[in-house]
Amino acid sequence: MIARNGDNVQAATSTSSTAKYTLANTASAPTTAAASTSSITVTVNVNGNPAATTYAIYNFTDGNYLTAAGAVTTTPVWQTTSTWGASFVSASLSVNSPYQFNIIARNGDNAQAATSSSSTAVYTLTNPAGTGTVAPVSTTSLTVAISTNGNPAGTTYAIYNATAGTFLDSSGAATTTAVYQTSSTWSNATSTGLTVNTAYQYQVVARNGDNTNAASSTASAAKYTLTSVPTSANTNVNSGSQITFTWGGNGTQYYVENSTAGTTSGWTTNNYYVSSALNCGSSYSFRVKAKSGDNVETDWASSVSAITNECGGVLPSGGGSSSSGSQPAATPATPATPATPAAPATPATPAIPATPATPSSRSSAASYVFRKAMRRGSTGADVRKLQEKLKELGYFTYSSITGLYGPVTANAVSALQRAQGWKQVGVVGPKTLELLNSLSNSQSTVSAPQFTPPVSTTTAAPRSSAASYVFRKAMRSGSTGADVRKLQEKLKELGYFTYPSITGLYGPVTANAVSALQRAQGWRQVGVVGPKTLELLNSL
């Protein structure tokens, strides 16, 4: 200050006043963004204030200030924007919770400007959901229980069927778009429209209040839908001491009980059970149940019964007969006694066997060329042809050709692989494709077995070891040894056994060859070598 008198004479200039700062501008609302499940970044907007201006950051939601480390304090901490940093992290927050912040500016005299307006509410991120728990409900549905992994009640979740590549809608049906609901709304979600006895895995995706997704949960353990109670149970009476029980189904394994005899099959992948050592002229009841890939058992199917052949009676043609549970209406007629052949003076010209009936025309699967790998879930023409080929070979026992590669088809492929001594993976890869095509090619030129009369000479043509072999033992699926090898050699000579090698194992291919031989005689085709079939083999 400078003072002046009435004559305008100035006094000396006063000493300077103490320095004073103008007030700071009120800071603008801060910018916030979610950083993690427990932190949010806060950016100070200076609103034109100079660099030396200091600021305090206030957590409006929790009613506290931030320290220089981002922790909580009850007193304001003042720092310039360069010290706070471009995006300061507020830590120790709650998961998936909304937060708002304010900024207070202060000038060089520590005079505070008005508090800024609050930031827009921003949610912290949510925890990834825990692994869901899956349980079977029916043959076409599974329940999925969500594990929230510490997320608050308002967190929403989507459920993903990792096996089918689809999400669940609010009703549990498949959809291509994620549907988000709270865990209480989902409750135990039921995934519907699934395939019977098939394994499925699920993942859960959590989302916070700002619709930001967390990482997907780890996939649940694979769980199978339930399998159906076996159907189409039937009995075939093979003799006075043996009955074959068959059925259809989509189980992974089956368990048969001969309720009358008190015997069982044990768990098996077969769709048939041969019950032997039975009493002639006696009634026997059979029942079967199945279990899924997770070993969940079905109820028993309804029992069916059959009566073995009468004691001392003749066998039905072909070594067996079919029964639906009651005694046949009439006893089969006794065949006429064959005439006794005259003793040959010299090696006689072998008798000319009757020409077998021409087998029915071969299916298109016999000449089909398989090129594509197939596994569970595959569909279409390739699968249909595969099922036709497996049915021809006796491995595919389902009642119809479906074109869907499900558990029944996988089991049939495994059985084919097991017959080769391979690892049974139930998947058609390059090696199995090669086998299928070799079987098709080896059969593509096979016509009805023809018997050419030998040229009449004084000396009979040499016969193979199978031709001179005398068959004495009954044989059926599961039989092994020299008798089976000779049987296969004989059937190969006659054109019925088309497998590339002699195995000595009586499996589906051998049973089919025996059935073809029996069909050529006009007999019932049971695929079992009984007394009448033994007599035929020895006559040939």
From TrEMBL:
Residue numbers spanned by region Disordered: 315-363
Residues covered by the Fibronectin type-III domain: 128-231
SUPFAM superfamilies named among the record's database cross-references: Fibronectin type III, PGBD-like
Pfam families: PG_binding_1
PROSITE patterns: FN3
Annotated Low complexity bias: 323-363
Family annotation (Gene3D superfamilies): PGBD-like superfamily/PGBD
SMART domains in the record: FN3
InterPro entries: FN3_dom, FN3_sf, Peptidoglycan-bd-like, PGBD-like_sf, PGBDSf
Highest taxon, organism lineage: Bacteria
Protein's recorded name: Cell wall lytic activity
